[in-house]
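Record filed here:
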Amino acid sequence: MLYRAAETAQALFLIYREIALDKLIVKAERTEGQLRLFEGTYQNEIFLPFPKHLIKDENEKKAGLTYLACGDAYGYMDMLIKNMIGGIISKLSEMSIKLNAKHPLKLRMFDALKEDRYEYQHEALLVTLQDGSSFVVDIAGSQYGHNVPVMPHDTYLKTMARDKSSPIQQPFGYQRNQMLIGCNPQVLLDPRLLDPRYHSANIIRKANEHLYQAFNRFLATWQKNNMPLSAMLKLKEKDYLDNQKNLRTAADKILLNARSQIKVVPNDSLESPGPTTFPDLKSKERTFDEQIAELVRSASANGHEVYSIR
């Protein structure tokens, strides 16, 4: 059940990242076992398309989508993870560790002027089940060439950790709190965060928060209309795969719809969004649950309300 939960979380996070990609990748090179990605010049973009013409290998795509996004994995997938494994664990915490890479991904930052050589900490989850066994859930490990989303804690440390000593641990929710700090108006308007090299990271964080809220409302509605996610994980293999596919397809539609509501207006101030609505549906008076349910059933959503970020 834990493996299915990790597999599902990884799949949904990759969908989320492809829709909310914030890196302008203009070139890809493969040399000496390394995948090198080059960033272009940012303008006023929030989210950018993944360069499928440059990166066609599925594992390389996963690496590109998860690069420097391990904090996002648990900052934006926290409710999904809790819904799936809350009933089978005795303890859940976040861990920060430096990993060995199977195929190191390097990113040349800021118009290819220099290579990013900083050795980042990697974020994952330490899960203790009710029987006392411990596992690591790592849904963003693809950036290091590690695509298996869960393994026993001891095995993870022995085979993947660069430093075999105990990793830094934080309570579950730490990365979520980091996302919320970034959405605090005082923090968002701090001029120190407006470094143009990061193409206004404050606005990116605000836009991600909009997607996060839409995603969690969708999860609640999907479970109400189908089954609890924890119950989906217990189904027979075929039924589990069918329902997971349905979940992934619906999540993709909802996130695309939520992204289409976002635009930047030419102003550095920020505006809080009003309620999320779907004008393409027959009645604006229906509840969010009813609107989401119709979107899930619908093959496409055509018209969109605008969520403004100034």
User: Anything to note?
Assistant: The longest helix spans residues 201-225. The first strand starts at residue 25 and ends at 31.
